[in-house]
Amino acid sequence: MNIYTRTGDEGQTSVIGGRVRKDDIQVEAYGTIDELNSFVGQAAAMALEDQLSDLREDLIQIQQELFDCGSDLAFVQLLVDRYKVDASMSERLEQWIDRYESENPALERFILPGGSALAATLHVCRTVCRRAERRVVTLAAEQEMNPAVRQYLNRLSDYFFVVARTANVRAGVADVEYVRSARVFRRNEE
């Protein structure tokens, strides 16, 4: 099998059911998800300690689901019966978020991406995920698509924020607070 096909030399690429320009918003959307998947793989490769095995397993599952997201966005026309992403995936992310958040200290101020190397990488995942979500929102304004992908990406960026903080907690490293931040997050007991 040849990796190179030469079919894209003129600036077009194949999607399921046709061809589009390589800079088409559809390609931008699933291409950004592919970029995110690479960073998620990097984070999973960094989560080798036993205390991070649950996080590593989550990240590997998320990589599979990001491929599902890209697949769902690669159709030229709406094919609901062939979609792989559904609302249950976002619901599961919410359960994971709640579980990890229970390990984190209360958040009072904005934090900067950083702390441990793993946390910094997870913050990169969060920001690339937000960009992927913006690309999907743009795509949804132009053509019909699986709305569960947009919901999944929205929830996934929240997941990355929470687990970046958890990675710091487990590494014994404090979150890096934004020094000019007021106390913006308050607990209900106030």
Quickly list its features.
single chain, mainly alpha, two-stranded antiparallel ribbon, elongated
Describe the overall structure.
This protein has a two-stranded antiparallel ribbon. The protein has 5 helices and 4 strands; from the N terminus they run ββαααβααβ. It has helices spanning 25-46, 53-73, 87-101, 117-142, 147-171; strands at residues 12-15, 18-21, 111-112, 176-177. The protein is 57% helix and 6% strand. It is elongated. A hairpin with a 2-residue loop joins β1 and β2. The protein is mostly helical and 190 residues long.
In short:
57% of the residues lie in helices and 6% in strands. With 190 residues, the chain is mostly helical.
What class would the helix/strand composition place it in? mainly alpha
In this structure, how is the largest beta sheet organized?
2 strands, antiparallel
Secondary-structure element pattern, one letter each:
EEHHHEHHE
Radius of gyration: 18 Å
| Contiguous helical run count | 5
Shape: elongated
Strand content: 5-15%
Instruction: Please give the share of residues in helix.
Output: 55-70%
Low-confidence stretches: none
Give me the count of strands. 4
Oligomer: single chain
In which order are the strands of the major sheet placed? Answer: 1-2
The average pLDDT is 88
Distance between the termini: 64 Å
Strand-helix topology:
Elements: E1 12-15, E2 18-21, H1 25-46, H2 53-73, H3 87-101, E3 111-112, H4 117-142, H5 147-171, E4 176-177
Antiparallel strand pairs: 1-2, 3-4
